[in-house]
Amino acid sequence: MVGGGQGAFIGAVHRIAARIDDRWELVAGALSSDLERAMASASDLGIAPDRSYGDYAKMAEIEAARSDGIDAVAIVTPNHVHAAPVIAFLKAGIAVICDKPLCATQDEATEIAKAVKAAKVPFVLTHNYTGYPLIRQARAMVAAGELGTIRVVQAEYAQDWLTEAVEETGNKQAEWRTDPARSGGGGAIGDIGTHAFNLLSFVTGLRAEALAADLQSFGPGRRVDDNAHIMLRMEGGARGMLWASQVAVGNENGLRLRIYGDKGGLEWGQENPNVMTLARVGEPKKIVTRGGAGLGGGAGQWTRIPPGHPEGYLEGFANIYADAADLIGGHGDRALLPGIEAGLDGMWFIDACIRSSKADGAWVAR
Amino acid sequence: MVGGGQGAFIGAVHRIAARIDDRWELVAGALSSDLERAMASASDLGIAPDRSYGDYAKMAEIEAARSDGIDAVAIVTPNHVHAAPVIAFLKAGIAVICDKPLCATQDEATEIAKAVKAAKVPFVLTHNYTGYPLIRQARAMVAAGELGTIRVVQAEYAQDWLTEAVEETGNKQAEWRTDPARSGGGGAIGDIGTHAFNLLSFVTGLRAEALAADLQSFGPGRRVDDNAHIMLRMEGGARGMLWASQVAVGNENGLRLRIYGDKGGLEWGQENPNVMTLARVGEPKKIVTRGGAGLGGGAGQWTRIPPGHPEGYLEGFANIYADAADLIGGHGDRALLPGIEAGLDGMWFIDACIRSSKADGAWVAR
Amino acid sequence: MVGGGQGAFIGAVHRIAARIDDRWELVAGALSSDLERAMASASDLGIAPDRSYGDYAKMAEIEAARSDGIDAVAIVTPNHVHAAPVIAFLKAGIAVICDKPLCATQDEATEIAKAVKAAKVPFVLTHNYTGYPLIRQARAMVAAGELGTIRVVQAEYAQDWLTEAVEETGNKQAEWRTDPARSGGGGAIGDIGTHAFNLLSFVTGLRAEALAADLQSFGPGRRVDDNAHIMLRMEGGARGMLWASQVAVGNENGLRLRIYGDKGGLEWGQENPNVMTLARVGEPKKIVTRGGAGLGGGAGQWTRIPPGHPEGYLEGFANIYADAADLIGGHGDRALLPGIEAGLDGMWFIDACIRSSKADGAWVAR
Amino acid sequence: MVGGGQGAFIGAVHRIAARIDDRWELVAGALSSDLERAMASASDLGIAPDRSYGDYAKMAEIEAARSDGIDAVAIVTPNHVHAAPVIAFLKAGIAVICDKPLCATQDEATEIAKAVKAAKVPFVLTHNYTGYPLIRQARAMVAAGELGTIRVVQAEYAQDWLTEAVEETGNKQAEWRTDPARSGGGGAIGDIGTHAFNLLSFVTGLRAEALAADLQSFGPGRRVDDNAHIMLRMEGGARGMLWASQVAVGNENGLRLRIYGDKGGLEWGQENPNVMTLARVGEPKKIVTRGGAGLGGGAGQWTRIPPGHPEGYLEGFANIYADAADLIGGHGDRALLPGIEAGLDGMWFIDACIRSSKADGAWVAR
């Protein structure tokens, strides 16, 4: 693991996700760029001192050389510290599991893409919401034509933790996520918008061809967007809207997806991810549960416990790690795991939003 | 009543709404432009033959002359037959309660506005969703500053009854609502979008200054929009999105409103209109019920039965009629009743959506 | 109408319910036993002075004699003033629409039953919740065997308005409803328990054969039950539980019904009465809406507006009045309208609960 | 671990729960009474062959003697194979984490209680639902008097997996759970009723003093109860109902708890465990989320991720394992971890239900 030392948030999430299915063991890390903190963090996590590094480059080099070297590295640093370690590990022949968004700038994205192309090992981007069983079932349903031709997508990701200027009162997460230098220019669009954008493509199998965006910064003094209104034109003629907000008071982590075709529609929300509604023209709406009655195996294949026993965010994230273990082991399903394409797509999204908004909401095409 | 004869839909709704609070009696009507049908419809409704007219102009003239003439007329014809009767009755000195949208064209709107200005009697537009008690309570809360400065509004009105081309298979409602000549050019934007647009202004007290729209017609052969994606810029700096759809499979009448300020947020949906959630920064979300505990009289003043005893669409509509009776009687609260301003606002909305969409989503300002 | 004068609650509800479908006109009344109040109330409601009576007996006599006499009378007095007027009007040959429960004592119930048997005019008891369209659809579904053989019923009616001793602080409704002399001995079991008990028989078509009850009075100084726990044995082998409470803080009018057979189950709640869930073994649960897609006409036949446009308590009540108009007119469906059998069943329920509870919860059979 | 070999269900759940917080490592096991299967299962799980036992007695003996012996054993066998291994390990000085219910018979319960009393090591019973953060917050709220004096409790646990006689068609879980010899006599009451019973005492801090039960077996040929209706009398005057069912079609794992005092009420359901509603007399109901805004730290202290990021069944279970690690390490909070008292309480519940039901629902006191 690179990043994720004491005081970090997403690193701990990655570690639990990796543990749940007992497919991974954490044996080495460059947990902080501060050596002392790196060592202390490693000690907390039971990493042997000789495999705790103060420097990701050294870690890549030494681990690649060990006969018992790591199978993969997780990159869980802030966005602007993704590109260099990703490239270093890929070059060293070590598979990479990287947090999203891909990186901070288009140039970095291009460099990473080159490295991925050149590498013989997998690159996985943790758009973790794609690991939710019902999201994967939804994807399979759309692919099987159960909704018919997709016409309309409505995606939203609403939070409220940046309603006030908490980045100025000591909230570390808020600090780097609202600092353009570290986040990469996007605020809500990068931090959460990319998840919603990725998810709608993941489920529908459709890429966005163009978007028009109106970005706002409501938090006093805020330097990045904290609310974004976006219209979408998808390949195949579908149209969509995407709303990302970190100032929508009363929303904790409201990622919601609604998809409508000429034969049916489905609706899902992340906060109660074990339930989805499915409508077909002329029929009563159905409540589809994770692994529940009817509708085939569906979501059940990516779940650990019976329907009615709720799984959550960590289990969805764990599916990414379990599948990554398969993939790196040589027998996984690439189609279900977000990789470089998803990463580049997300970077296009961030950039296009910023350009469109600056151009007063003009459509920006690929 | 003008319109609302046999086979019509909204006329019957107006009649029930007028009856509920026992403030109105239906005594005269030009229920159809077909005289035979007009007479038969009048007979069904217990209207005396001598007050059943085949012609609204005659009705206006004769009723105005009677000492026991009508106090008000309800105009419930298709959109393109609003302007002429509205103007005729206003000129005859008879108050008008008119279904929305105001009319079919901007020119008609201008004429109606003139007539309203010149008239000494009230003009009421039945944006009936403003009659829901919790919507009025929400308006009062926003006005009292409970949400702080409004930042973001999300309005949507999703239906699915036009998913297929039912206008071609004998659905009368679908026929005129998808015929540009009768609907006035707008499809979903006029039929339902205007309701959502009106509602967000009603609750926030803010007018839209500009909009950018992307309209689509998904139904095969359809001549008007059946799905609309709209971005909004409101006075005071708030921004919004509005989605109107008649092809969102699984949605019956999904009018929903979400409003966020710098102090709080509220969310309401028409399909279960007796409940609203209210969030304040740093506090748990509250479930506000129609006339329920806490939060003052609020919605309770526009309701007939105790909380927990659901009221619905008809009772909300009835509030418009009860208030109109007060207003016409000389002692009502004009502020709560949509009138010509709301009508003109809706006509601007329809026109601006069409112009923006034709201009590839360019912002259209007032 | 007998009862329902100024300050009363349920009388006004009956009047709106009667008006909604324009099948009834209120033309006479003995609105209060206090003559002055009766006259004032009649005047408020537009009843002609000569048809406003201070005495129900006189009203029965005179109205029966008039050529334009009333078609039916609504009895909306407190429970202990049901029997006498019901019998008087039936004897006078005037149809009766009576609020529930039937009356205050078993002796009165026997007398009413005799009068109903002897009468040539209909007797209707306003167990209004049977008028909800989805409740009627549920009944039809059970009758059609869609749930298979019924095994388990769970009924509950939870309110909280008597959490505190409001009967001692001027709440008129609470005063008579907690006074054994006026309520008839039962508290929650009579006021709301009878509704739940009636509803489960209405939907399942099964009578209770025995019950075991544990009644409590939590309100300080309260003389009747305000919380009741009841176990049920139904004919055909089904078993049930029924909970009625007026001290369940946070519940406004929580009447809920859940029914399970060997093939399926359904769940419905009064506070959002336009939605029901239906489960069949091995299939995903369905969301059935009032008049919505699939599942045949069902609830749609007792509704006025399209699905998604919510109807509420008053429209359900209005269905009772519309059906009563049909029945009294000679062509209604007796099976859907609660009458004397439902009334006697409810009186058995109240009495059996009290006897069982006094006998420490021993089963009391018919 | 004792039990939990190939094909078992709950053993795998325990293993994930133990892994999530990285406080436990699985190093030894007697995973099956069939030696070959035990060895194969151990191999699957990475347990060294020399610490895979075919016999729990041997395992207790050898592990107790090793300097690197296990810190605790998890007993995850069917109910009738709890007592012997629990006692063996306790006698060997090894802490025990045992699945619920405690055991199969009252005699076994007495023996276990003796062993626990004599032991110097902790005994933990995995009533895992007590590990849900909001359940612990609810317990703290009740203890702090936020609901006032508790009056009414409504607990239910509804499933549908035994609607049909699946025990006769090869469902292994159904086989032993419906076999009185292995389950201990109780069906639904033992398998799920004990959870609901435990939970209501855990949250309210009140013990049941007496119960009256009506048990049924609806599944054809079924030898244990699959539906149970129970009335409760709690210490301090509160009364309750408890419904446990495995034939309630449409319910997957519907454990729900509703508690009402003279000051407030709260409601929680397991299938969406991250949300609870809290009502106070005269105030609007609040939606309390796991670790969400307002109401103090509360649930947040037993959670790993921010509010809005759902945790589920496994995380609740993991809290039991994490707390057990603390307790066994000498610094845990005994009050939050179910132990022998909860186990004996559950055994009383099962026995009292059976006795009451045989006595036609007579009250059975402690």
SSE layout and pairing:
The structure is a homotetramer of 366-residue chains.
Chain A: H1 10-20, H2 35-44, H3 56-65, E1 72-75, H4 83-91, E2 95-98, H5 106-118, E3 123-125, H6 133-143, E4 150-158, H7 172-177, H8 180-183, H9 188-204, E5 208-216, E6 227-234, E7 239-245, E8 254-261, E9 264-269, E10 275-280, E11 285-289, H10 313-328, H11 340-358, E12 364-365
Parallel strand pairs in A: 1-2, 2-3, 4-7
Antiparallel strand pairs in A: 4-8, 5-6, 5-12, 6-7, 8-9, 9-10, 10-11
List keywords for this structure.
2 domains, Dihydrodipicolinate Reductase, domain 2, homotetramer, 366 residues, 11 helices, alpha+beta, nine-stranded mixed sheet, three-stranded parallel sheet, Rossmann fold
Describe this structure in words.
Four copies of one chain form a homotetramer. The first copy, chain A, is α+β, with helices and mostly antiparallel strands. Chain A contains eleven helices and twelve strands. In chain A, the strands form two sheets. Chain A has a nine-stranded mixed β-sheet. The mean pLDDT of chain A is 95. At the A-B interface, strand 4, strand 5, strand 6, strand 7 and strand 8 of A face strand 4, strand 5, strand 6, strand 7 and strand 8 of B. Strand 11 (285-289) of chain A pairs antiparallel with strand 11 of chain C.
